[in-house]
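Re: the pair you flagged

First of the two:
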Amino acid sequence: MNDLIALSPEVAQAREAGQPVVALESTIITHGMPYPQNLEVAQQVEATLRDAGVAPATIAVMDGRIRVGLDADMLEALASTPSDKVMKLSRADLAACLATGRTGATTVAATMICADLAGIRTFATGGIGGVHRGAETSFDISADLYELARTPVTVVAAGAKAILDLPKTLELLETLGVPVIAFGQDQLPAFWSRESGLAAPLRMDDPAQIAASARIRRQLGLEGGQLVVNPIPETAEIARAEMIPVVEQALAEAEARGIAAKAVTPFLLQRIFELTGGRSLDANIALVLNNARLAARIATAMTAQDRDGAPGRG
């Protein structure tokens, strides 16, 4: 194991025993919601995985090492640190954060890198980054998409956030050769909404098939991971017809105020929170928990297939 990586006792024990582990990102804790709600949600997600017999591996950079799995004190410390004191880490920032000894929270891309280094093949998150609207002039495209094309981790998300250009995001994922697998439906979900109006390239209804697909990709020597898009539970969704006007209003306000670059997404998410009366955050929490449950099933199937030594096309 790389000496820059420190596994928590829980994760180390699970890895040693051949038990399933699911990676979790940390930017949702540091930049996604205020303290102490962020801590409570992080604890809920970890408890959801443990209840499914899976070890949670929340990943962050702390004290000069990549922490794969955080104990209670570390989780509390990370959640209570002001967001402007925590680096938001992607592929470009990870080494610099370690070199300077700063605290860093991992995005989807950085979490994939760290999970792969630790031998973890399944990762649950909320939503991935994607192609921003106006990217044809701004070139604002998330590194998450390129990481999916190069790092062999199965990422379970509720799609890309609806503030993004979803057709272009899907097109780029196809160009990069990333399998986009909708779980249990034919449409691509759109984060807060179960439907986006876009057909999903692939559909699977069985976590064992998703696990087998990852295994077969390795056998074929194909680079990269898989994106599993898991629709938000019906009881928690904000329907597409309701969300589209909200997103359009938030985007128009951002443009009118001259908000650009890295400031855009935080502004939009805050404005959508206000325009939906807080329902967008409730939906976000529900979908993260739902993704953790599915990731647990996929990781458990991967572990079983490893023991059987078969693709497990069940």
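Second of the two:
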Amino acid sequence: MQYLEFWRLALFVGLLSLFMILEWAWPRHARRFPRRQRWPSNLGLIVLNSLTIKLIFPLGTLALGSLAEQQHWGVLNQLALPSWLSIAICLLLFDLAIYWQHRLFHAIPLLWRVHRVHHVDPDYDVSLGLRFHPIEIALSMAIKLALIVILGPPLLAIFLFEVILNGMAMFNHSNLNLPQRWDARLRHALVTPDMHRVHHSQLYHEHNSNYGFNLSCWDRLFRSYRAQPELGHQGINFGLANWPLAKDNRQLPGLLSLPFRSPSQVNKSSTNKA
């Protein structure tokens, strides 16, 4: 199991570096703020979230999956299915669960207060795929652990899902100018940067669409798919319209306290610092 943890970390670092290079070489749109004003906080959340998970949950996804396998927990551990079929079922169900998790974080006001940390960023690049409040990361981890106990997935399925989850989150949040013909073909199956970019629009009906992170079929199936932004990809405004471009929204302390503040409080704070 330790070698799986090593490869998960290695692939995460490798993919993050790759998408940083690709979006630097072929950017989709101009940055509103320089990297130095956003990346320290966005990337700092990775470290904080990792520490939070280790403190709250004694077992990670792979460790719990190994225990579930030993104890024969979960539906799939009671069935004599071929390994490839168990893995395929798990990847589909995990993907569907994350789609609905994301949609509920938009629909339920208390969850939205936490999730809006991800949405107030006025720029769009690979670092945004890692910008989540520790509370959201903890809740997401609890959901994944519950699914592991219920399903009893093979360890390889858990490993593949974690790699896909991180890799696709970075891919579809990257400021990558993917050729339109590639985008059109890829989005038949996968969520592309152009498809997910619509989800970060300030327009209400646009940021309440395109919830998928990996397979694009869920948005089509559950009627939350929107092909293109109304203002086009060069005219799209990122962030939330009722939140100011406050410095607090680009610094780690401000991001951590954001779920507990209102837009008016941020406005006041920004004015006082001006």
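The two ends are 52 Å apart (CA to CA).

-B.
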